[in-house]
Amino acid sequence: MGTYSTFLCLLYLCGVLGTGLSTSPTPRRLHCDTCNFAKPCYPVPTECQDDEACGISIGTSEQGESIERRGCLPKSQCPLQGHATYWLRSYTLQHCCCEQDLCNVAAALQRLPSPLLTTPLLLTASFAWGGCLLH
């Protein structure tokens, strides 16, 4: 193989040929799950725009109802509160954004059970275990 052929092979292997002789990699867009407020959620993988991140938006109404939406969000909206209307109810949205492929696949941030539920369970468990330990 001649010097010129060796040079072309090295350029090809280094990725210079076939990319318009650009040395900087093309930015790759994020892929996120998209699912509107409907329950149950049947997410669809979606490619975001360059200025977007994956997000989960959790909405709460004045009546205490909650809704959840997943999808691509403009990065500028991530730290801000939002508002949405769903089934004639107004919801205040909190956005949680991430910047990795399909990072919004998991259910929204796991909420701790209500203290009204956990307190009796913890007391019952401690009495049951404590009673066994005292004997």
Automatic annotation (TrEMBL):
Gene3D superfamilies documented for this protein: CD59 (2.10.60.10)
InterPro entries (UniProt xref): Activin_recp, Ly6g6e, Snake_toxin-like_sf
Keywords on record: Membrane, Signal
Subcellular location(s) per record: Membrane
GO CC terms: plasma membrane; synapse
Annotated coiled-coil segments of the chain: none
Domain Activin types I and II receptor as annotated: residue spans: 35-106
Subcellular location, principal: membrane
GO molecular function: acetylcholine receptor activator activity; acetylcholine receptor binding; transmembrane receptor protein serine/threonine kinase activity
Signal peptide: 1-22
GO biological process terms held by the UniProt record: acetylcholine receptor signaling pathway; desensitization of G protein-coupled receptor signaling pathway
Pfam families cross-referenced by the UniProt entry: Activin_recp
Protein's name in the database: Activin types I and II receptor domain-containing protein
Species name: Loxodonta africana
